[in-house]
Amino acid sequence: MSILEVKDIKKKFENTEVLKGISFSMEEGQVVSIIGSSGSGKTTLLRCLNFIETPDEGIISVRGKELFNAANLSSDKHVREEDIRQNRLHFGMVFQHFNLFPQYTALENVALAPTLLKVKTEDEAKKEARELLDKMGLSDRMGNYPHQLSGGQQQRVAIARALAMHPDILCFDEPTSALDPELTGEVLKVIRSLAESHTTMIIVTHEMNFARDVSDTIIFMDQGVITEQGDAKELIDHPKMERTRQFLSAIAK
Amino acid sequence: MFVTVTLSLLEGFLSTLKLFALTLVFAIPLGLIICFGSMSKAKIIRLPVQLFIWIIRGTPLMLQLIVIYYGPGLLLGESPWVGLSGRFLAALVAFVINYACYFSEIYRGGLQSIPVGQYEAGQVLGLTKKDIFFKIILLQVVKRIVPPMSNEIITLVKDTSLARIISVYEIIWNGSSFIKSDGIIWPLLYTGAFFLLFSGLLTMLFHYLEKKLDYFK
Ligand SMILES: Nc1ncnc2c1ncn2[C@@H]1O[C@H](COP(=O)(O)OP(=O)(O)OP(=O)(O)O)[C@@H](O)[C@H]1O
Ligand SMILES: [Mg+2]
User: What is the pLDDT of residues B94-143, one digit of tens each?
Assistant: First the structure.
């Protein structure tokens, strides 16, 4: 059974249709990268999966369970809010701009959600947070506040924070785009090691070599539709569609 | 004479302090309610609240004191503000309304300055709305509003002297009464020392608060 199945997601903002029917599925332990030019709807798709945006149409299922179906959107706002909150627990999100909580240390940022949601006691949550930060290579930075960390360190804290909730699927929206070039390596290394330990991930990225290396599948999006998807190396090395070829050669320049 | 004057001014200053403290006690929470009203999605709430804020911030506090003190009497034929305590209450009502509106605008600025990414980061972790507000947003808002709030609160210290327009016996009233009774003006000037001392204390308190919140950016 697929861990994630997305069927015909559509999303409109005012009059512009940003997602025009997106369908794909992925298996547990797989890494899917989404590439495509600016404005093609990649961020919007991730935001729909994390229920920050509500799709106008479509179905999202995790492990065969239908989490969202636009056809039976409840009109009761309170029921809906609690449902949405529960649905979000299946997904994790790492933002382009990290969005760490400035008033908490690295350790507190990671332990906050498990503690508040009573998934764990505070001590257990802190213990796991230490282990996660350790894995991110941040053992000596746990007591630092976000403003005392480099962008690369902040992004690694953000990854640990998302992992602490043990999402089924971890999403990344251009995790290295806000970083100085010399800092992208340390973040990509961490994501690569997550891929090696079979963390299910969807990664929106402009780093083509990285996407080719770590992903099982690549999805190419253009103007709100999936133009081409397939095996990562195959798609990068031998794209079938003219549009994909154009995009890849433009990026290579 | 100095002792008599000091005692009289102290008595007036007590009334000043009472007006100051009670204004804060009521205006700080009321400001939050007005703030939520002014940011409401429902036009029917938002527009009247915004109109109200505009009126209060667009007219002198002195005028508002007069309207609140004399207005009900003119309309109802009988004033609800009787005696010294009635006048004090009228002054308090005017101050609370006025300052709540100023505070509400400071809160609004503070809330709107928090990047939407902070809310979204809380949402994707599955946190409840309540936790997002109280555990993530609130302290960041507090940090941002301490400087403008301290300005406003120090202005309030001095604004309390406006209450004498409706004969609330605060410190300036008491100080100037010596002009009539004893023909001396120095007690009035002496009141300045009380204001300086008190606003100095407040300034120190707010500096301390700002320092306390300096550990994050
Ligand atoms: N909240 C919104 N309101 C209106 N339009 C929006 C909103 N969010 C996104 N859009 C529009 O939707 C389109 C797709 O945006 P999106 O951010 O999903 O693209 P993207 O593929 O992530 O691009 P980039 O590579 O630049 O990040 C853009 O034209 C954008 O202007
Ligand atoms: Mg984007």
Answer: 999 999 999 999 999 999 999 999 999 999 999 999 999 999 999 999 99
DSSP A142-153: TT--GGGS-HHH
Cβ distance of B118 and A99 shorter than 8 Å: yes
Task: Just give the CATH number of B2-212.
Answer: 1.10.3720.10
Distance separating alpha carbons of residues B33 and A97, to the nearest angstrom: 32
- The C-alpha atoms of residue A32 and residue A203 are separated, in whole angstroms, by 6
Please choose from A17, A42, A93, A172 the residue to mutate so as to test ligand 1's pocket, defined by most ligand atoms within 8 A of CB.
A42
Whether the Cβ atoms of residue A200 and residue A170 lie closer than 8 Å to each other: yes
Ligand 1 in reach of A43 Cβ (< 6 A): yes
Instruction: Give every CB contact of residue A47 below 8 A, 6+ residues apart in sequence.
Output: A53
- What gap in Å lies between CA B35 and CA B104, rounded to an integer? 4
**Residues of A with Cβ-Cβ distance to B114 under 8 angstroms:** none
Is A85 within 8 Å of B128 when comparing Cβ atoms? Answer: yes
Q: Mind listing the pLDDT tens digit for each residue in A154-193?
A: 999 999 999 999 999 999 999 999 999 999 999 999 999 9
| pTM given for the model | 0.91
Buried b / exposed e over A212-221, threshold 16 CB at 10 Å, is: bbbbbbbbbb
CB contact under 8 A, B118 and A147: no
Pair type for strands A65-69 and A91-94: unpaired
Can you tell me the distance from the alpha carbon of B174 to that of A211, in angstroms, rounded to the nearest whole number?
78
- Among protein residues, the one with the nearest Cα to ligand 1's atom 26 is A38
Answer yes or no: is the ipTM higher than 0.90: yes
